Amino acid sequence: MRLVLFCIKVFLLNLCILRECICSSTIDVLKELSPISSPSGFEDDMRNFLIKKWESICREVYIDNLGNVFFCMNCSVRDRTKPIVVVCVHMDEVGLVVKSITDDGFIRFEPLGGWLEIATILQKWIIKTSKGNVVGVSGFESAHVCNKYPSVPVKPMNKMFIDIGAKTKKEAEDMGIRPGLGIAPYQTFEIIGANSTRILAKALDDRIGLAVLDGVMNALKGKSLDVNLIVVCTVQEEVGMRGAKAIAGTIKPDIFISIDTSMSADFPLQVADPDGSGTKLGSGFSFFVFDGSMIPDQKLLEYFIDFANKNTMKYQYDAMQLYGHDASSLQQCFNGVAAINIGIPCRYTHSGNSIIDLEDAENTKKFLIALLSKIKKADIEHIVDKR
Ligand SMILES: [Zn+2]
């Protein structure tokens, strides 16, 4: 009996150590990603970082003319000897773009991606210039003068401004500012929660996807697979999945898997979804069964659900109208591509501060590693055959 208890203790200890190791690698990657500014259309710093981090674990790295990066794990980008499975994560983040500079040195802006006006007020920002990063704050009137603050109408985005400390337009220009420059939120990275299992940071949409990819790629490097595995990191997803549309110019995927965040609905203030039917943090990744941009391939969805059940993976379902992702762009290319979107639950997306649960990231990683290791050519032939 004592021996059994000892064995159980050792097993649980190993499990804890293993979990800590896995989570800490995700945290390490997220920490590295966190300070990078990568608003849509200005993903150069993120792209360079990822290439430097991953090129040694891939067979080939290819960058297309739009800036999407193809990390070919076990093949070349032109290799058609095995079915092509793509796992796709977008490397841009919601941001802003400089529209104009006022005579007294303030920056007018337009959104890059979907923002609620309220989420852009009194936030710190980084403007990427050729002379380096410029920090500023989106200003608003003080409570001293707006004593009925909640009733003060939020200004439309084109009336807002960023204060970079310049006194004149000339000063702002001398700091490197010009219309058309990308602007990203400027935030800290925090590990939060009683057990340090949650991350509070900017741009977890879709950096949690990139952190998951890091684990998947490292687990599968050098492994013999029945498919050609290509990881694609796209540009400009947040402005209408523009980067993903160019993927078809380079490869023709047989299966396309997009990994993006899902909007969790597990906090008190549910305006759009008072029934709280969205996903929940800590309840596993989600299969998008429907969204405004795509109905997934039904055979692919069934295959994934079946695989998750057989391997006792923790998952949930997601369905929402106001949502789009890269898989929807590829689904309609060529003569159609079997595509699916997998979500990692995230609170407060499209703002400067979002929260994810590390356990969901680990579940997603575990699922992808198992699935990509085991999927056979015959499975893909079955999925794409619509008779
Ligand atoms: Zn996203």
Radius of gyration: 22 Å
> Which term fits the overall shape?
globular
Distance between the termini: 57 Å
Strand order of the largest sheet: 1-2-12-3-13-16-14-15
Could you explain how this protein is built, in words?
With 387 residues, the chain is an alpha+beta fold. It has 2 domains: 27-93 and 202-384, Aminopeptidase, CATH 3.40.630.10; 96-185, Elongation Factor Tu (Ef-tu), domain 3 (Beta Barrel), CATH 2.40.30. It is 30% helix and 25% strand. It is built from 10 helices and 17 strands. It has helices spanning 2-33, 44-54, 117-120, 169-174, 204-220, 242-245, 298-310, 326-331, 358-374, 377-384, and strands spanning 60-63, 69-72, 84-90, 95-101, 106-112, 124-129, 132-138, 162-163, 182-185, 190-192, 198-201, 228-234, 255-263, 285-291, 315-320, 338-346, 354-357. The protein has an 8-stranded mixed sheet with strand order 1-2-12-3-13-16-14-15. It has a 6-stranded antiparallel beta barrel with strand order 4-5-8-7-6-9. Helix 7 links the parallel strand 14 and strand 15. The longest helix has 32 residues, at 2-33. The radius of gyration is 22 Å and the shape is globular. The N and C termini lie far apart (57 Å). The model is unreliable at 12-18 (pLDDT under 50). Zinc ion is lined by residues 90, 205-206, 237, 260-261.
